[in-house]
Amino acid sequence: MAGLGTAATAGVAGTGGAVIAxxxxxxAIGFTGVGIAAGSYAASMMSAAAVANxxxxxxxxxxxxxxxxGMAGMGTAATSAVAGAGGVLTGLAAxxx
Length: 97
Known about the structure:
Blueprint lengths: L3 H26 L1 E2 L2 E2 L4 H12 L9 H11 L3 H21 L1
Antiparallel strand pairs: 1-2
Helix pairs in contact: 1-4
Membrane topology: Multi-pass membrane protein
InterPro entries: IFI6/IFI27-like, IFI6/IFI27-like_sf
Keywords: Membrane, Transmembrane, Transmembrane helix
């Protein structure tokens, strides 16, 4: 089990890593800067959301938000949320393992 210093260091690294990784991961699953990539996991998500909502994707749904972030990037609030979550999760993992 790691000490608090190690957990804090891991948390800081996780903060930056999460912010850098988020756009890469979104692009890899199909939420790109030019829209949802055909045949991707994102396309499957969009199809399922459309079927569930009678042909459209609901505003504010996970698919709509991820598509927006994939095309426009993360705003300040989203960047802060991702950074915080990455730091906390990495710090907790360092304490546990």
